[in-house]
Amino acid sequence: MKLNEPRMFDILNKLLSKEKISALERQIIFQDRDGSYNLFGTYIISKTDFGYKVEKKYTYTVHTFSDLKNAVTWSTLDKCGNLNGASRVLVLDGQLSGTTQNMIVHENLYKRAKNVEQQSLFLNKLHEGRIKKQTMTREMNGYIERCKAWQYQQFAQNATK
Predict the structure, then answer these.
(1) Residue 142 region by backbone torsions, left for phi larger than 0, else alpha for psi between -120 and 50, else beta
(2) Is 126 inside any structural domain?
(3) How many domains are contained in the chain?
(4) For residue 11, what are the β-bridge partners?
């Protein structure tokens, strides 16, 4: 018999004490029945029309991200106390989505350009956007890898308890 996540969560609720469930909730990431993600018992990530919204429980902190991976990265960095990294991920996410939109606009303008000078200008802008996006993506991937390493470290520590 294959168990789905909500059913498994109900079974765990029956088997474990509230303290153990609370401790477990602070260590894991799971998807709720409504499709939102609950991270470390502190962050809720939900899909919106514009991307993903991260809410930090018991605070007024709400941020919008264009990508789920960036939202999880911000939440993880905030959880482990890397506030500089978290703020940089927030900025990078905005810049990445802006650069992507600029690239779409420049590509459309390039296709509609009437003369060689206009085509050259828009092609240069498109190339500049690709380089910016590549650089920002590389930096974002560095933060993502740090978060993965931190999570694996947490799993290892909890496995020895």
Answers:
(1) alpha
(2) yes
(3) 1
(4) none
Radius of gyration of the chain (CA): 21
Q: Give the count of beta carbons closer than 10 Å to the beta carbon of residue 44.
A: 18
Residue 3 domain flag? no
In this prediction, residue 1 carries a pLDDT of 46
d(CA 39, CA 2): 24
pTM summary value: 0.80
Other beta carbons within 10 angstroms of residue 98's beta carbon come to 13
Give strand pairing partners of 58.
Answer: none
DSSP-derived 3-state class of residue 2: coil
Residue 12 belongs to a domain:
no
Question: Residue 65 corresponds to which tokens in the numbers above?
Answer: 């991200």
Q: What is the largest CA-CA distance in the chain?
A: 72
Identify the domain containing residue 87 by its residue range.
28-159
Mean pLDDT, to the nearest integer, of 118-134?
A: 95
Q: Which residue has the higher pLDDT, 24 or 52?
A: 52
